[in-house]
Amino acid sequence: MNLIDRLLHRRKDEAVSDNTWLVVGLGNPGAQYAGNRHNVGQMVADELASRLGATFKSHKTPSRVAEGFLGPGRPKLVLAKPNSYMNTSGGPVSALLKFYSLDVDRLIVVHDELDIPFDTVRLKRGGGHGGHNGLRDIQKAAGSPDFTRVRVGIGRPPGRMDAADYVLRDFAGSERDALANLLADAADAVEAVVEHGLVAAQQRFHSPA
After folding, report:
1. Of 21, 39, 85, 205, whose CB count within 10 A is highest?
2. Active site annotation includes 38
3. What is the DSSP string of 20-53?
4. Which of 116, 138, 130 has its CA nearest to residue 40?
């Protein structure tokens, strides 16, 4: 490859990087956790992969990854589901950022949120982890809290149920009827952030129905 070809190749790689977003769906690995409320982030990642016609595959980082473009000339999504348990999500996310040469401002983390009513999606960038151990570990490993979060509401546990028990249970039957729409809304929110920016996406998803 001559000098001109190398320069053109580098510019192409830089252009792809500038138009690439890492979207991480949080959860726990294994079939026994797949339907848990705590795994709703990975469910959203599956929804996005389905839209892209992409398949999750093993990756050099400790994650399963699916890649695809939203359309011709549109952004590229790198969808990832860490192989680690929720509480140690930081290592895989940090490895993914390094592998794809992406800054933390190109990271979108999709996760369950106890403090938001079920069937509700909220968006934010930065801030604290609110006791969410997956977010805590990502902040520590990435060295910054300044990534975008797509917060998928699962609501508070009923009665005196412990929050840890609640998030590790599958969605109730009444919730399953609305789950497909919730996952679609969260996937739409990811696409809106990527294509239109956080503020525009917040105006859409935070507005009263």
Report:
1. 39
2. yes
3. EEEEEE----SGGGTTBGGGHHHHHHHHHHHHHT
4. 116
**Catalytic pick among 38, 59, 111, 132:** 38
Mean pLDDT calculated for residue range 200-206: 96
Where in 70-120 does DSSP place strands (E)?
A: 76-82, 107-113
The CA R_g of the chain, rounded to the nearest whole Å, is: 17
Stated pTM of the model: 0.90
Three-state DSSP class for 18? helix
Element of type H or E holding 180: helix 173-196
Please report which helix (H) or strand (E) contains residue 173, including its range: helix 173-196
Instruction: Return the biggest CA–CA distance within the chain.
Output: 69
Conformational region of residue 139, where left means phi above 0, alpha means psi within -120 to 50, and beta covers everything else: alpha
Res 54 pLDDT > 90: yes
Q: What are the tokens at 203?
A: 């105006």
Element housing 69 (H / E): strand 63-69
Q: How far apart, in Å, are the Cα atoms of 14 and each of 71, 79, 96, 102, 133?
A: 19, 19, 17, 11, 33
85 is an annotated ligand-binding site residue: yes
Is 33 labeled as ligand-binding?
yes
Q: Is 87 annotated as a binding residue?
A: yes
